[in-house]
Amino acid sequence: MSEGHTGHVVPELPEPGGAGPNPDGSAEGYRARHTLPLRVELVRQLRRRRTQVTLGLLAALPLLLLLAFELGSDERNRRSGGLVDLATASGANFVSFALFASASFLFVVVVALFFGDTVASEASWSSLKYLLAIPVPRHRLLRQKAVVSGVLSLLALVLLPLVSLGAGVLWYGTGELVTPTGEALPFGVAVLRLAVAVVYLAVHLSWVAGLALLLSVSTDAPLGAVGGAVLASILSQILDSITALGDLRVYLPTHYSFAWSDVLTSEVEWTDMARGAFSAVAYSAVFLLLAGRRFATKDITS
Amino acid sequence: MPHDGAWSPTVDRVAPSPRSRRTLALLAVVVVLAGVAGAVVWTRADDGPPPVRTRDVRIDVADGPGRDQPVQLDATLHLPQRTPAPAVLVAHGFGGDKDAVAADARELAERGFVALAYSARGFGRSTGQIALNSPDYEVADAQQLLDWLSRQPEVTTDAPGDPRVGVTGGSYGGALALLLAGVDPRVDAIAPVITYNDLGQALLPNAGTTGKITPRTPAAGAFSADGVFKRNWAGLFFAAGLGPGGGATPKGQAPEPGAAPTPSPTQGGQLDQGSRPDRGEAPRTGQPVPQQGPATCGRFRPEVCQAYVEVTTTGRASAATVELLRRSSPASVTERIKAPTLLVQGEQDTLFGLDQSDATARQIAAGGGTVKTVWYSGGHDGGNPGPSVRGQIADWFAFHLKHTGPDPGTGFEYAVQGAFRSGGPTVRVAVADRYPGLDGPDDQGVERRPVALRGPAQVVLNPPGGNPASLSSLPGLGSRLSGAGSGAAALAGGLAADVPGQTAVFTSEPVDAQVLVTGSSRVRLRVSSVPGQPATGEAVLFVKLYDVGPDGRRTLPGNAVAPVRVGGLPADGTPVEVSVTLPGVVRPVEAGHRLQLAVTTTDQGYAGPTAPAVHRIELAGDGQLSVPTVPGRRAATGGTPALPLLGVGIVLAVVALVALGVAVRRRHLDDVHEELADVPLVIRDLSKSYRGGLKAVDGLSFRVERGQVLGLLGPNGAGKTTTLRMLMGLVRPSTGEIRVFGHRVLPGVPVLSRIGAFVERTGFLPHLSGLDNLRLHWAATGRPAEQAHAEEALEIAGLGKAVHRRVGTYSQGMRQRLAIAQAMLGLPDLLVLDEPTNGLDPPQIHHMREVLRRYAATGRTVVVSSHLLAEVEQTCTHVVVMHHGRLVAVGEVGEIVDGGEVAFRVDDVELAADALRGLPGVGAVTPDGQVVHADLGVLPRSAAVAALVAAGVAVDQVGPRRRLEDAFLQLVGEEAVE
User: Fold this and answer.
1) Residue A84 half-sphere exposure, CB side, CA atoms within 13 Å?
2) Who has the most CB within 10 Å: B259, B538, B879, B906?
3) Distance between CA B539 and CA B541 in Å, rounded?
4) Do residues B430 and B257 make contact, with C-beta atoms less than 8 angstroms apart?
């Protein structure tokens, strides 16, 4: 409280004037569809340490992998034809390895973070009520936040393979992509296929996004929303590993989480990816509609 | 953000038990999910494969050239749920018995076949001696088993004495299947697994020929006469026939597509019968007393034993032995096989390589038979067929015996094992429409790709005694090692070692794109003696093809080696040109890898010559290796992407429709009373109940006019903050309504933009500076920057340079002032502040009062909540007093605070009351303890005091009667008592 001056100068306040209120009763210059522009929300999120650190880590991960492969190539521990050899067979292989390493957990966490944190963190800072009092209509707030979270998630999803590709090409060249099952794809084709894989991953992870957003509007604790979505993913993965569940496993949202690896074959098998896309879109649609409904009717008490 | 409960209504804080309820809900979901999973596992456990009944039988047969030697065969009949059904005869591998194939038979019975597993003569509990699948013995026995099957009521028959029957078996049993189908037309379909075409070529292979190799099939071998004795394998094979406990069939299961390589249990180094690992039977030991003949011959028939002794001792096969092996080989009958044949051969098999099934396929096709070839990733070195291949075998019988299921066709499938082992699935199956080279002279055959080898002529020597010798494989080692995980499998691939001085090496340039070797490569070599050096007139060479990585690591695919015996080598150094067919392999040679041909004089697995010799080896002709490739597609997994994609479209359409519906409904939300358009705030019958029945606000009604500073006064928990939240559209009223400038307040209605509010806690992004917070907040309104009046707001906040610091570092008071500044952005028509002076120091409080007064003076309206009477008294023009959610009092502050009544504290209450009543214009006078209350009207207090003094009353104190304070103190007092 010692900060700042406390001079007892009360500024001259202008009389109300101008064009007066709009026909809908809103203040001059207010338009519901101009509130919370994407640019503003993006700046709000991008200036958060959380966002910067996450994106930074994703960009750094390929370089860490590269370092690990280069420094850790102790002959005794390096089995001929092992994982390291597969990952370093070519730049495209390096990207594919990075994707395999990140797809089932890291990307889930990142998407859950961006979507789960977005509303819940505003609630925890109490800034949510001031946004809603502007007023940013609730459906619009949710949409703008979802779009920005989606943009950030996509950025993360693209950043990692792009950095991997750059680093991989520099270190391991533009050779053929070689798969564990012994198929080889020319570099150009492989890059295209990996791009398709990233697109599929983006679609697949939409279920995580939907669930995280639903949790985000349901709780004031960002950690609860992010953790809940990650937990659901892990639970689903565990259930998916129980083969006794048989065909029931296709209903698990993570069942098709590795369907994107089907692009890494000479002939792409689209069936599983199409099923995975349907599963993800159906789940995320349900979650998003629930989130919208929940948020529209909710009492904001934070 | 620290939260001071003392100045915040507790009512609002009681409600959020939803959090704990949500935790409960999450828990419930987890429990339900676990329950469902458990139930499913439970029900699936009951839902097992169909039951299989078994019947142990002993079947008497008579065999021998005169069919006069009685033998009793031990067998088990596996019966399916529904009979009669077609039968499948299941024969075991060398060294096994009917128990070794019981699991296979049970599986076939589960698929609806009557499966007869039996022990061949000389094995298990069957009597008789091993005659190596002789037509007079084992084949004759099997024919009589067909007779027996035709008499069983459970077996479908085509004609009397002719059962509907298929035959399958691995290795020794596979050869029986071929031989039986070749001699007995009653066999309707066969599926021989990892077996031989020509036992002579399998045990004494010669992969070199000075002639031309004509077959155009992928894995055709030279099959030249006078081969090199495959000593290690033959020894194992023979030992398996000496008595129980030996074995020459693979252990474990070969990896299959989609399956990660998993360790399978192996039983130490014991070379016992390779039944499925799940059977886990104890190795049998001991040596039974032979029924006849020398103990070294075990259960073999004398002529077989004699042939073996001859070959092992000399390393060469006599004409009689060659004839014996030929008669025991399917090659003698394959051209007569008409039963549809599924040939399953292993890619990891140094005993019966791909060249064996290749020859069988060629011969059956030449005879007009139907044949399909499957190469799987196992073999005698790599494990038994896995569930997928076994399923294929059952499918084969289902189609050809029962005419159910899809047509398996006559194509070609091969498994590709990646060159890398990543812990995930490493095997895929490639499918080709046909096995190349079977369709007669017009067939172009397998695609062959030339790879140029380089290397000068090299001189190699065969050491005396053939020792030390190069190493390519240990019999069955691969399958034993693969059980220990992928690391061991990689070790097996890198096991091969060549002895320097004995090896000539020719290497290719790195390949520029992956080459998928599918079959046996060919190369032409020129071999000559070196004049003046030891020579024997012949050369025995072992030719291998390595995959060499960029770092120089060599892998010998399949651990396979092609032995070549070149005879008639002139001593003067005149070269002999020989065409070599390398072992059939499936190997992806990755880009950047080289192919390397190694020609050595020794191999530990073979009985090479012991006489010293020196040879000169060079590439013949253009020095090109001819590498076979079979373009394959991925095995179809079934299903079409169209339906799920349609589903995606439908889901998206539904979402779009819902969004549209919500948008349309929202259009019609505006509810306006024009006559109230100039009234900042009207609250009517407002109530809010939370779940649990708590009423935070109960029937509240009041009205605020322009220019007023309204104080919302009440103790903590009176419902002030809830009212303000409803005013901001954050909380929905249970009943009643709030109108701001005539517009009904609902979440997100546009009229809210005319309200500036600071309610309860401040809400800033802690990582941004105060200034950035205000800027971003205004940016979020989407309104023009010039309407913000940010300078005035910042001046009111009075934060000075601190506005450039992160809000996270602010004190409570600084945040409070910043929050008020934020509420004032855009100078809203209605300013709502919740306990604005909390946390401010006295000068700041004073300043704030002035600000609010001036604000209202511009014609705008201010609503302030407080639990402090003094605060309201000094700041507000009007007041609304609330308690327990209800309205207690409402009116002008002056009117309520000192509505003309005066309180006199006096010594004599009665006297004072009388004196006051006597004064003109004085209204009601009420004594109350030591105090007299009087409505003085227009009479000045001084006049009243003078009159009292004149009446002899001692006046202690004179002041306005604080009705509001009375009421308020009473309320607060109650609160304190509670």
Assistant:
1) 15
2) B879
3) 6
4) no
Nearest to B798 by CA among B814, B810, B775, B809: B814
Cβ neighbours of B212 (radius 10 Å): 6
Q: What's the pLDDT at B705?
A: 92
Contact between residue B382 and residue B450 where contact means Cβ atoms under 8 Å apart: no
Query: Using a CB-CB distance cutoff of 8 angstroms, which residues of chain A are in contact with residue B743?
Result: 24-25
Spatial CB neighbours of B635, under 8 Å, sequence gap ≥ 6:
B257, B413, B428, B429, B430, B431
- Chain-centroid distance of CA B831 in Å reads 56
At B735, the amino acid letter reads T
Q: For an interface test with A, which of B10, B43, B422, B518 has the most A Cβ atoms less than 10 Å from its Cβ? A: B422
Assess A230–B contact: CB distance below 8 Å, yes or no.
Answer: no
Inspect the interface and report whether the beta carbons of A21 and B759 lie closer than 8 Å.
no
The tokens of B279 are what?
Answer: 């059977």
* Minimum Cα–Cα distance from B754: chain A residue: A27
Task: Describe the crossing of helices A38-46 and A49-71 by its angle, rounded to 10 degrees.
Answer: 60
The burial class, CB within 10 Å (0-12 / 13-18 / 19+), for B852 is buried
Facing residues of B861 across strands? B830
CATH number at residue B915: 3.30.70.100
- Give me the residue spans of the domains in chain A: 36-72+79-297
Whether residue A7 is predicted with pLDDT greater than 70 in this model: the reply is no
Instruction: Say what the alpha-carbon torsion angle B896, B897, B901, B906 is, to the nearest 10 degrees.
Output: 150
**Residue B247 Cα, gap to closest chain A Cα (Å):** 31
pLDDT at B396 over 90: yes
Is the pLDDT higher at B275 or at B716?
Answer: B716
pLDDT tens digits for range B745-766: 988 889 999 999 999 888 999 9
Edge-first strand order for the sheet with B861-866 is: B755-758, B830-834, B861-866, B709-713, B878-883, B886-892
Model confidence over B293-343: pLDDT tens digits? 677 788 888 888 888 888 888 888 888 888 888 888 999 999 999 999 999
Per-residue pLDDT of B205-257, as tens digits, reads 999 998 888 888 999 998 998 899 998 888 888 887 775 544 556 667 777 77
State pLDDT tens for residues B173-208: 999 999 999 999 999 999 999 999 999 999 999 999
CB contact under 8 A, A235 and B33: yes
ipTM: 0.90
Is residue B829 domain-shared with residue B731, that is, in the same domain? yes
Closest-CA distance of chain A to residue B772, Å: 10
Residue A33, pLDDT above cutoff 50: yes
List of chain A residues whose C-beta atoms are within 8 Å of the C-beta of residue B759: 129
* B887 and B903 assigned to the same domain: no
Q: How close, in Å, is residue B419 to chain A by CA atoms? A: 6
Is residue B273 within 8 Å of B283, Cβ to Cβ?
no
What is the CA angle B698-B701-B707, rounded to 5? 135
> B798 with B679, same domain?
yes
Both B735 and B877 in one domain: the answer is: yes
Distance CA B841, CA B705 (A): 30
Q: Could you check whether the bond before residue B160 is cis, i.e. omega within 30 degrees of 0?
A: no
Return the residue of A nearest to B762 by Cα.
Answer: A126
Are B869 and B923 contained in the same domain? no
Q: Which residues pair with B78 in a beta bridge?
A: B54, B115
Structural domain of B516: 447-634
Q: Which helix (H) or strand (E) holds A224?
A: helix A222-240
| One domain for residues B486 and B614 | yes
pTM of the model: 0.77
